[in-house]
Amino acid sequence: MSEQRNYGFTTTILHNDRRKAIEQGSLHKPIHTSVAFGYGDARQLASVFQGKEPGFRYGRQGNPTVAALEDKITKMEDGVASLCFGTGMAAIGALFQALLREGDHIVSSSFLFGNTNSLWQTAAGQGVAVDMVDATDVTAVAAALRPETRLVFVETVANPRTQVADLARIGQLCRERGILYVVDNTMTTPWLFRPKAVGAGLVVNSLTKSIGGHGIALGGALTDTGLFDWSAFPNIADNFRKQPSQAQGMAQLRAKALRDFGAALGPEAAHHIAVGAETLALRMERTCANALALATMLEADERVAAVHYPGLASHPQHGITRELFKAGGSLLSFELNDGIDCFDYLNRLKLAIPASNLGDTRTLVIPVAHTIFFEMGAERRASMGIAESLIRVSVGIEDTDDLLEDFRAALSS
């Protein structure tokens, strides 16, 4: 595959493994299950451990199959380096584990995936202050910043109420203040949006979701876009300062979150995710089209109280969505009118499956307040705009007419 031509997104990902030699001419990087890597020269082993030359030390810190996936993710996000983790939450946890210290401060969107919200509560209990703000408004982020603020964290499209952060303006604010800007791109994926375009220094992706796409492997990733000046970040340990400034963040993350904390991705999961990633653009085109059609239908139905989908003109952040994203995404949520029991409604669906994952090829539904956001309590749910009847829909690749009829028939029963 020529290095001289700039290929398109899918072509690049589809052929990326072959940019480097693959054993026996395999079209995919094989699954390397070994956790130890031998060297014929002991000096070379020492050189690899000291970071003087590339190579693999131990399976917890890297593996040829995982490295091939990391390279794919880096290409997807137009970054300089990526690290893969056992789950998406492990990738977010790596920020806390490897980059933050007692007395540091985080500014985070208040519109968050429930487990990320729980993680920030854990961080707050261990000496890292966290302010949760309305990230749809950059002035709320600016007002929360302190001298000890180390990072600003937002999701592109919030799960489950689909609020869209003021991404570009927050990025500009972070650049002006020299603050690490971390953007969780899971709900948009690198196909719909690249956070590098708005100044993100680190990008989070849950590989379990749309990038893997088939609901058969857990994984997560952090990608360094190359935009953040790590030499100005106060929490880099002295031994990692020996690296070039651009590499310092990833070096510390690999050591602290993979070597020390052990949040590694296994090679079998990496292989499944890498194969799934090849069809990301194709799947996202279909799921986004299905989501828009379903959201439009539901919004027009008088039995539906509200529909939350960034691709609808009625969405508060529709303008940002049109400006930054290729489409509105595959996630939507809606509220039923009073008197319609959400459990009875879900039980009448024939195709959509009650399940907690996102980004699957199949359409998945879940009653949010009673499941994934149950433990945070009614008051916190209300502050996030999560109604008791809210149903989250991760839209799949089913035939559009079949999908619409399934949701329509369940309303009519």
UniProtKB/TrEMBL annotation:
The keyword Transferase applies. It holds the Pfam family Cys_Met_Meta_PP. It comes from the Bacteria. Belongs to the trans-sulfuration enzymes family. It comes from Massilia niabensis. This is Cystathionine gamma-synthase family protein. Its cofactor is pyridoxal 5'-phosphate. InterPro entries: Cys/Met-Metab_PyrdxlP-dep_enz, OAc-hSer/O-AcSer_sulfhydrylase, PyrdxlP-dep_Trfase, PyrdxlP-dep_Trfase_major, PyrdxlP-dep_Trfase_small. Keywords: Pyridoxal phosphate, Transferase.
